[in-house]
């Protein structure tokens, strides 16, 4: 039977220790008491022979002393601690495996009650019989591996009388002519019932049937493990060696622990208490070592009849009663669903009893959750790996494996809780400022380092006020911090503080375009001169490429203008024939027409030409009117005005 003592050790106190040690059933005292009494009796007999003058003379007693001292020195040759440690570890592992496979029907009973539907008598019989067959399998197996169950059910008739099996089932079980065990038969009956339930539609889907069969199979597999543990125990030689070594050890102690010599000599002050010291120490050693061995003896067969063995009979009764209640009494009998008491509550806070309401609780909080940074501001930047600074055959870090400057820097302010002790300490002693940390990491001088940090076409950082000089992150932050300090000290007016153009807004620092690994060069190098030369060369190369592109675009535009001009000249040839040259007078170029007809004709031609030129100007607003068109327009207008001024019919001209 299992000994439960968890209530006695619910707290670590002297009273709990005394309660634990004063238990008798299953205790070490009960295990070693008989053997300890036998050992004490033998020790007393040997002591009487050794210390009385009736059996040994002085010479023989001296020989005994030397002999016992030699035995006492060589007792360590028996590795008792080593042997017991390994043996008990193996035994406890087997004991745990047996307990895990002992068999519980709760999960399978819940599946049966859920998947096999129906309130009719046939459905109830299917559910109850399936569950009972599982428990019957456990009874048949336990009869063969547990003495307590065997004493309870010595024959199959007693199993029928107990209610685990029907008479018809016993006859069916006996009819099977098989010289091996028939543990599988009730499980096969169980599978047949499950298939019948599926065929009758009481199980809704094949997936449910598979789940039920899998659960029953797991139950049978655990019982099979128990049979294997009972069939193949730990090899006999191991417990023989351990048990024999412990008992021989203390048998030798009967001779080796009789002497009271100290460094080979008897004590100077003789006392009647001295002979009891070896007996007391040997008895304590006997209790510890033999008790340790009894642990292994008790756990070797947990299905036996010791005080700490498993309650197999209780397990059988419990599985049958609980399983039948699940599949029949509690089938489809759920309470109506209602709103719980926390339905409209903002927070869920269950109540405690008055005795436990004020007890301290340790909630599940991460061990590092209470950490708070000491600084008021945190600098966030990419990681720089310094493990691979040098390559094979290279001594210069800058040339072989340069480190990369962070593409951007983010400054995060720490939002502290007012109740935090760490926050109060950090406010009293803020430590170095953010600019001091930036200058210490990226260099102390404010060197403008134009380059690829903000050079991508994806982000524009030019402001509306002139051309800005783009500098490094540290220099920009440094200027902003210096201006803020001056403004706080009254050395800088608000207009100067807010009105001066910045090289780059500080919020652009976090918007840095991505760069490939080839283009991303070293920017945290100590030698800034090399870095600046590299950036300048890159900048010059880009400027040359841009200049070439601009020249090509200009040539293409000039070619397009020449093509357009040629087209315009071809279109304006009729008008130019009517043009009056600047070195000729209007009368010389006058055709042989009357003045009124000629005036109307020229006015019409002038309007058409001006309309054509206006359309070309609207279509190509960047192109200038050709010089020839201007000359023609001026001459034509002058000629028209001359004709109109010399004509008496000016009012009849349609302009």
From TrEMBL:
One of its GO terms (molecular function) is chloride channel activity. One of its GO terms (cellular component) is chloride channel complex. Residues 491-525, 537-570 are annotated as: Disordered. Keywords: Cell membrane, Chloride, Chloride channel, Ion channel, Ion transport, Membrane, Transmembrane, Transmembrane helix, Transport. It comes from the Eukaryota. Residues 537-557 have a biased composition (Basic and acidic residues). The keyword Membrane applies. It is found in: Cell membrane; Membrane. Residues 558-567 have a biased composition (Acidic residues). The chain crosses the membrane at residues 36-54, 75-92, 98-118. Forms chloride channels. Belongs to the anion channel-forming bestrophin (TC 1.A.46) family. Calcium-sensitive chloride channel subfamily. This is Bestrophin homolog. It comes from Caenorhabditis briggsae.
């Amino acid at each position: 039977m299992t000994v439960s003592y968890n209530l006695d050790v619910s707290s670590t106190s002297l009273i709990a220790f005394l309660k634990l040690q004063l238990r008798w059933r299953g205790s070490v005292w009960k295990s070693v008491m008989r053997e300890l009494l036998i050992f004490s009796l033998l020790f007393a007999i040997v002591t009487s022979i050794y210390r009385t003058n009736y059996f040994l003379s002085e010479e023989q007693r001296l020989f005994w002393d030397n002999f016992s001292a030699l035995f006492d020195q060589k007792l360590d040759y028996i590795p008792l601690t080593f042997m017991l440690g390994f043996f008990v570890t193996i035994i406890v592992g087997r004991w745990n495996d047996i307990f895990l496979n002992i068999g519980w029907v709760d999960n399978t009973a819940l599946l049966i009650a859920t998947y096999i539907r129906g309130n009719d008598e046939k459905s109830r019989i299917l559910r109850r019989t399936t569950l009972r067959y599982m428990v019957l399998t456990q009874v048949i197996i336990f009869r063969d591996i547990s003495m307590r169950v065997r004493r309870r059910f010595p024959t199959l008739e007693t199993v029928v009388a107990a209610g685990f099996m029907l008479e018809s089932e016993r006859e069916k079980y006996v009819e099977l002519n098989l010289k091996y065990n028939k543990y599988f038969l009730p499980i096969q009956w169980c599978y047949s019932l499950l298939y019948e339930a599926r065929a009758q539609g009481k199980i809704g889907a094949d997936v449910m049937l598979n789940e039920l069969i899998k659960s029953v199979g797991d139950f049978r597999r655990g019982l099979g493990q128990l049979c294997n543990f009972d069939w193949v125990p730990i090899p006999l030689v191991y417990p023989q060696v351990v048990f024999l070594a412990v008992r021989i050890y203390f048998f030798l102690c009967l001779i080796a622990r009789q002497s009271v010599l100290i460094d080979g000599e008897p004590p100077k002050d003789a006392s009647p208490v001295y002979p009891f010291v070896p007996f007391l120490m040997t008895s304590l050693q006997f209790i510890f070592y033999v008790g340790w061995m009894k642990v292994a003896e008790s756990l070797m067969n947990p299905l036996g009849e010791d005080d700490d063995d498993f309650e197999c009979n209780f397990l059988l009764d419990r599985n049958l009663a609980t399983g039948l209640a699940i599949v029949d009494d509690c089938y489809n009998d759920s309470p109506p669903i209602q709103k719980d008491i926390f339905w409209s509550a903002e927070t869920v806070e269950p109540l405690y009893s008055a005795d436990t309401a004020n007890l301290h609780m340790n909630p599940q909080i991460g061990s590092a959750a209470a950490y708070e940074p000491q600084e008021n501001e945190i600098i966030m930047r990419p990681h720089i790996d310094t493990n691979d600074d040098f390559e094979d055959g290279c001594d210069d870090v800058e040339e072989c494996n340069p480190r990369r400057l962070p593409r951007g820097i983010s400054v995060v302010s720490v939002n502290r809780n007012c109740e935090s002790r760490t926050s109060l300490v950090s406010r009293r002693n803020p430590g170095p400022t953010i600019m001091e940390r930036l200058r210490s990491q990226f260099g102390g001088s404010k060197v403008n380092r134009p380059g690829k940090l903000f050079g991508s076409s994806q982000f524009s950082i030019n402001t509306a006020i002139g051309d800005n000089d783009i500098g490094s992150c540290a220099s920009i932050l440094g200027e902003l911090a210096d201006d803020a300090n001056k403004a706080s000290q009254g050395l800088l007016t608000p207009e100067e503080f807010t009105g001066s153009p910045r090289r780059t807004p500080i919020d652009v620092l976090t918007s840095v375009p991505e760069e490939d690994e080839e283009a991303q060069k070293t920017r945290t190098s100590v030698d800034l001169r090399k870095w600046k030369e590299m950036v300048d060369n890159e900048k010059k190369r880009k400027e040359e490429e841009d200049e070439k592109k601009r020249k090509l675009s200009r040539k293409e535009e000039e070619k397009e203008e020449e093509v357009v001009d040629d087209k315009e000249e071809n279109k304006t040839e009729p008008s130019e024939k009517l043009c009056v040259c600047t070195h000729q007078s209007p009368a010389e170029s006058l055709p042989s027409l009357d003045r009124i007809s000629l005036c109307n004709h020229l006015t019409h031609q002038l309007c058409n030409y001006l309309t054509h030129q206006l359309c070309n100007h609207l279509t190509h607003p960047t192109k200038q009117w050709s010089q020839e068109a201007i000359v023609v327009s001026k001459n034509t207008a002058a000629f028209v005005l001359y004709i109109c001024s010399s004509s008496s019919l000016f009012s009849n001209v349609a302009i």
